[in-house]
Design a protein that fits this description.
Helix content is 56%, strand content 17%. The protein is of the alpha/beta class. Strands 14-15-17-18-19-20-21-22 form an 8-stranded mixed barrel, surrounded by 4 helices. A hairpin with a 4-residue loop joins β14 and β15 (439-451).
Length: 668
């Protein structure tokens, strides 16, 4: 017995197959781009949506088939056929999860998926309960199996093709039509292969279409598809926008940047430009965070002009942006950096304010792979910090030499953690001299580090690291205690010489400075006036009022305060009348070229000012008799420099200045 088809229901089954296929292609993209638990949420929900959609096409197609007999369906076999469909869909999605799918996985996945589709169809056929026997045309049955496997491999190929494309496109719709048609082709070929044999004693009846069953399956299927589309729409247009788009600038954020690097599998060379605004914190602190946000928004708008097909811009932090350029070389990266610097430094007119800001840019160039993508970002970050150290408002291209410096810095940072415990630090003392009396005026204590493998490390190299890590606080505590103890040792020899110790701004931020100074003095039983603390003039600009309060409390102990490197960086002349200091130390910049009228005029003005403010004035960098002669002519009699002595260990100091030796010190 042969059946007939309801052409309208057949068309409906094809539409269901196409819609399910389109949903599957979209869900494949969601699975590929999701992370963590969301990846598995989309994997299981996608398997159910795709599987139930294909099964619905199959079931509606069977309802479209009309035979002249009463027909019912075995519930358990029908459910089993649906499970086979969902399971085959799960396999398809699972195969497409990795970024790179090898041929072995593709072959195995296609075979398993094809077997699942075949099982779904023929288990569904066995679920039919009717008063007749069922057999199959072997040729058509084999053809349906072949079509099922072709459809499976085509589906896997399309899943892989579109897994990184999250938006709709005509090509994706065309692929869904091809994929849905292939699945329907397998189903109707399988139905064509079926042969129904009625028994002679049965009376043929014409059974109408079970409209309730048809509508139930159709409505349920469409509901599942629409729910999945709604979830994807909400995820793409609401959740993704919240999670992957910066709220202030509208640019992609750090999450989107991570997703870009996770999904990017190209081997072409790319350029990474790490952009950091200079002194943005000053703007936030002076005119408020609201204005700072508006400024960031304007910067983001200017950076959007650099977004092209092969260039993407991300905002990855408060005032940090990243420009990623595909097919990039050094010349093009440097050209982009120059254009960005020019664009950013133009005046910003925001709510009646004219704001100016610059940026520092670090550039690294390489390929993105799972092994070096983070190295590429780190290299750009290192180059950016080098640009800042070089003066800001400029760019720096990462190179191997810069990388070696960073490796050395990391090694020193690691070794600094144990340097204090292992007694690798020592103190040297540089003499200060009173030219007028031709007598020693005291010493400046300077820290040195004897690395067990690298030798003596320059303070200019390791002190900034201790400040960054906060190690400068315990190290300064150790210095204060050692210096106070050394002063007492000299005092027992009849030598009352004050010693100055340099301070870092981190000491003021810790809130422990006064206690550290007081404890060091009490521990050594040293008179406070023999200890002097040196600050730099730029230091007071971090928090003027707080630093003045802390210095007042320390000076109240009897400890002297001096301002080091006066005349460099930001001028603090306007604060000199408020600063609780006893001494000004002139940078070596003033010692050089004292034979020029302009330099002598400046020096004379500073000397007069210091005298009026009743401050001692010490000139640093004195290296020859010409320096001494020029300074004394101007009226500056306190000096420090190599002419009177380089920084020396205690043993050298004792021999050169006090005529003491180690034996004498031990017998006292």
């Amino acid at each position: 017995m042969e059946g007939t088809y309801n052409i309208y229901i057949v068309a409906l089954s094809v539409i269901i197959a196409v819609l399910a296929s389109y949903s599957a292609l979209n869900i494949a993209a969601k699975i590929s781009n999701a992370n963590g638990k969301m990846k598995y949420f989309w994997l299981f929900s996608g398997s159910f949506v795709m599987g139930s959609g294909v099964w619905s096409m199959h079931f509606i197609g069977m309802l479209a088939f009309e035979i002249h007999a009463n027909m019912d369906y075995d519930a358990s076999l029908t459910l089993l056929s649906m499970i086979a469909s969902v399971l085959s869909s799960f396999i398809a999605f699972y195969i497409t999860m990795p970024q790179i799918v090898d041929m072995k996985r593709l072959i195995l996945g296609g075979f398993t998926m094809g077997s699942g589709i075949v099982a779904m169809h023929y288990i569904g056929m066995e679920a039919m309960i009717m008063p007749m026997e069922l057999s199959y045309d072997k040729g058509l049955l084999l053809l349906s199996v072949v079509i099922a496997f072709i459809a499976s491999y085509a589906a896997l190929f399309l899943f892989l093709r579109f897994k990184n494309q999250r938006t709709a496109s005509w090509l994706k719709w065309l692929s869904a039509i091809i994929m849905g048609t292939a699945i329907c082709g397998m189903h109707y070929t399988g139905l064509k292969a079926a042969r129904f044999h009625s028994h002679s004693h049965l009376t043929e009846n014409t059974q109408g279409i079970d409209l309730f069953l048809l509508y139930s399956v159709l409505i349920t299927t469409l509901f599942i598809l629409f729910i999945s589309w709604g979830a994807m729409f909400f995820d793409r247009n609401v959740l993704e926008k919240m999670a992957y788009q910066d709220a202030i600038t509208g640019l992609p954020n750090r999450n989107e940047m991570n997703k870009f690097f996770d999904t990017f599998i190209g081997n072409e060379t790319i350029g990474v430009l790490f952009i950091d605004l200079d002194k943005f914190k000053v703007i936030n602190d002076t005119i408020g965070h609201d204005m700072g946000d508006l400024l960031i928004s304007e910067v983001g708008a200017r950076l959007q002009q650099f977004i092209r097909k092969d260039q993407r811009v991300f905002r990855i932090g408060g005032d940090e942006f990243l420009l990623v350029v595909k097919h990039c070389d050094e010349k093009w990266a440097e050209q982009l950096a120059k254009e960005i610097l020019l664009s950013i430094k133009d005046v910003y007119r925001i709510e009646g304010n004219e704001l100016y800001i610059t940026a520092s840019i670090g550039i690294s160039i390489g390929t993105i792979t799972s092994s070096n993508r983070f190295t590429l970002l780190k290299a750009a970050d290192m180059a950016m910090y080098r640009a800042k150290k070089s003066g800001k408002n400029r760019y720096c291209l990462y190179n191997d030499a810069l990388g070696l410096e960073e490796v050395r810095k990391m090694e020193l940072e690691k070794d600094l953690q144990s340097a204090l415990e292992n007694n690798q630090f020592y103190i040297v003392y540089q003499p200060k001299w009173n030219v007028k009396t031709n007598r020693l005026y005291g010493f400046e204590a300077l820290l040195r580090w004897e690395h067990p493998r690298l030798g003596v490390i320059s303070p200019a190299e390791f002190i900034p690291i201790t400040e960054e890590t906060g190690l400068i606080v315990p190290i300064t505590k150790w210095i204060l205690e050692k210096v106070c103890h050394q002063c007492i040792t000299w005092q027992t020899q009849g030598e009352l010489q004050p010693v100055s110790v340099n301070l870092s701004n981190r000491l003021f931020q810790s809130g422990r400075l006064k206690d550290m100074v007081q404890n060091a003095l009490e521990k050594a039983n040293l008179k406070p006036h023999l200890l002097e603390l040196e600050i730099t003039e730029s230091m007071v600009f971090y928090d003027v009022e707080d630093i003045i309060l802390q210095l007042d409390s320390i000076r109240a102990l009897g400890v002297r305060i001096s301002m080091d490197d006066f005349g460099t960086g930001y001028s603090s002349i306007g604060l000199l009348d408020r600063m609780p200091i006893d001494t000004l130390k002139l940078d070596r910049l003033f010692t050089n070229d004292l034979d020029t009228p302009r330099k002598r005029a400046i020096m004379n003005a500073i000397i007069v000012m210091a005298d009026d403010l009743q401050l001692d004035l010490i000139a640093e960098g004195v290296e020859n008799e010409e320096h001494i002669e020029s300074l004394t002519q101007l009226g500056c009699y306190l000096v420090q420099g190599y002419f009177y002595g380089k920084p020396m260990k205690v043993g050298e100091i004792n021999k050169l200045f006090f005529n003491l030796n180690d034996k004498q010190l031990r017998t006292v």
